[in-house]
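ugh ok fine here u go
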Amino acid sequence: MKLFLSIFGFSLLWSKTFSASCRTPLGIISECVSLYDCPQLVGLLKQSPISADAVHFLRQSGCGFEGNTPKVCCGPLPSASPQSTVRPRPNNNPDLSGNTESSVGEDSEPSPRGECGLDNNEDRIFGGEATDIDEFPWMALLGYRTKMNSITYQCGGVLINHRYILTAAHCTVGEIEKVVGKLVSARLGEYDTRTEIDCLGQDCADAAVEVPVQAAYPHSGFSDKNVNRKDDIALVRLAKRVRYTSFIKPICLAERRLRLTTGSSVYVAGWGKTLEGKNSPRKLKLSLPIFDKSECVAKYSTLKAELTEGQICAGGEFAKDACRGDSGGPLMKKASSDDWECVAVVSFGFGCGSDGWPGVYTSVAAYNDWIRQTMRSSNL
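structure:
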């Protein structure tokens, strides 16, 4: 039942009455019935694993609940489509030419509440893997120029206004420059790195946007030599202002007063390593619990990594963690105002999804003042 509630969402739970007639995702007039009375959709649920396209079709078919049982607009499934004609990505060498735009005053501050953290749809599968095509529209991929003169994406981040991305310091300076290359671009509005235009069923996103990087501002206290990765936070200033769309939006920043309780749920997202040991072409998400800080400090002290007040621990469950490729990406939660906010930045961990070992994240609340001061001093 938990799976059903996850797929069909929570926003319909308040509904007490349902229309007998409905229109299926394929546009066919049908009836709103119990999921168990629709063998076609029950068959979709029996897929293992459930594909992202199947989840999308199930979501669109939902028409309410009767108690805890989902109701669906029952009808035929979409016919198996031939191979997509969407062309794959061109070479990994996007055009990053163009002049740097002049500064705009409002870019000296993070996006305000009411404009930031706006989700496109409440109908989600938290704790699952595949995201919906327009989910977490603030996610960014950071691109690096390699010695072979191509672009490779090795870190993540989040858009916090038209001009700035929040990420980890280790994604902008130090070892990554020697091993990978120079940070030169940010990719926004991405979902599936294999295709030029991303689609789930009949819903297609705008093409992803590649924006040149003007400058990176890692925290002055960060050093690769510090085992505890203290001050692992940075801002990336884009060469051009980004236009907001349904697939590109900013996330809110956690306020200084934020306190996270042990066991409360937070979420990570990105294109990082999967259990198969390779990066995912599609954007993934994962629900994690906040880990007890004192226990986390004790664990990492055995590795001679003395954690600071500016760090948060989350995870600690086997095979559930943010791994390489998610570095610099966000730890997120919904605020009481229902806006999504970034509470921390992925920093480091012990292994990947090791049981009992949480990941370590740089607290946004602890560095809120630094973020704002850096934006004001660099937006010139």
